[in-house]
Amino acid sequence: MSSRVLLRGGVVLSMDPDIGDFDTGDVLVEDGQIVQLGRDLGTDAEVRDCTGKIVLPGFVNSHHHMFQTALRGYWSDALAVDYFQQSRFGPNALFHQYTPEDVYWGQFGGALENLAAGTTTVVDTSQCSYTPEHTDAALEAIRRSGLRCVFSFSPAFGDHVPPPSYAHPHDIHRLVDLPDAVGGGLVRLALGYHVDEELFRLARDLGLPVFAHVNDMNFGRALETLDEQGLLGPWATYIHCLGLEESTWKAIKRTGGKVSISGVAEQSLGMGRPTLQAALDHQIPVSLGTDAVSIAAPDFFSQMRAIYLLQRGGLPHAATAGAGEPVPPLLTRDILEMATIGGAQAAHVDHLVGSLTPGKRADIIVLNTRALNAGPVNHAPGAVVTMMDTGNVEAVMVDGRLVKDNGRLLGVDVDEVLDRLAGSAADLAARAGVSDILLTSCRER
């Protein structure tokens, strides 16, 4: 592909209010950067006809555990207690069986799945760093995939005995010295995974983002304690944010924090109603996460629909919950903003991606509307959020490089990846000593 590419004649959703949208527009890309948006741009670039297509920024997933790809759907029936117990506790805990090779194929397969579905950036909460070798395998797989990623170096939890080489969080000092680890390349580093003073202090000292699970009111109160120590700031993104008190929301707002909501996983696990409306009420930037493919599908079409319906379905309750102004319904464009520029803000890469703004990197997706589930398009944001699915993702570009074209990933042997993931799933179950649940349920273990 040429270093100058013109995406011509599509419906362009820039997600930049200063630029606006185009019913028929062009996007010029050069050397991996968005150069210009407009109509009938004349250029000597390689031209790609986008007639009958919607062109927009790639989706940004602000919370995902990609290493779990081999366990796809394993906890579809699970409540939170099942998921945490079976993954991390006891002699049959599945996560503790992971080898670096399992991590590699989980990360690689998960990254490819996201790319194929139009997600160009993922915040990967690793949780698989049992040894430095596990961490290195994860990073190697992400780099090979071509995905843009914020790798949130996270602890391995549970009742296992950590190996002697277990090195969280101090192995972050080795990682930041790796080539392209900070400030360059497609992979950036961060720290996670919970509300912990050492992690927040280390992130602040190293100038890294921190991603913290705030799963209930007690974690929220712990967050307020860190606020008293000056450890909160705009470099922090808070995941789930379930059951928080008003004082916690005020601390997040005051310190410039962002919020990541996993609307499907939180409801599937019975963790509580996602706190989308509370974040909106406090005017805190909201982004979408998918949590884990072991629980639910990580594609953003599913996520956008779930969060759209969640907010709309809550309007009658919000209207009768007490005094105050009526709660306005979210529009499909609002949801699309959460999935793109909102995600980029929560991932701390909005200076690079999240909108088709000239000067940003060219992370772009092209969605086919010449399909029975999409055409004719009467309302472009509505078509993306409420009508389309992964089958409409025709082309995906990351940093100006095509990774998917004509509906197919480029340079990838998908069958090999699937075979490797199937082998990993079988090996994990065998090492854990758990039986097949193909026709039963994780709740029957």
Note down, in words, how this protein is organized.
With about 450 residues, this protein is α/β, with parallel strands linked by helices. Helices cover about 35% and strands about 20% of the residues. Strands 1, 2, 3, 4, 5, 14, 15, 16 and 17 form a nine-stranded mixed sheet that branches. The longest helix is centred in the C-terminal third of the chain and has 19 residues, at about 415-430. The radius of gyration is 21 Å and the shape is globular. The termini are far apart.
Cα-to-Cα separation, first versus last residue: 51 Å
Percent helix: 25-40%
Radius of gyration: 21 Å
Q: Could you report the average pLDDT, rounded to the nearest whole number?
A: 94
Q: Find the count of extended strands (DSSP E, 2+ residues).
A: 17
Structural class: alpha/beta
Principal-axes shape call: globular
| Uncertain regions spanning at least 5 consecutive residues | none
Helical element count? 15
Beta-strand residue percentage: 15-25%
The major sheet is characterized as:
9 strands, mixed
Summarize the helices and strands and which ones pair or pack:
Elements: E1 4-12, E2 22-30, E3 33-38, E4 46-49, E5 53-57, E6 59-64, H1 80-88, H2 100-116, E7 119-125, H3 132-145, E8 148-153, H4 172-175, E9 187-194, H5 197-206, E10 210-214, H6 217-228, E11 236-240, H7 246-254, E12 258-261, H8 263-268, H9 276-281, E13 286-288, H10 300-313, H11 315-320, H12 332-339, H13 341-346, E14 364-368, H14 380-387, E15 393-398, E16 401-405, E17 408-409, H15 414-432
Parallel strand pairs: 1-4, 1-5, 6-7, 7-8, 8-9, 9-10, 10-11, 11-12, 12-13
Antiparallel strand pairs: 1-2, 2-3, 5-14, 14-15, 15-16, 16-17
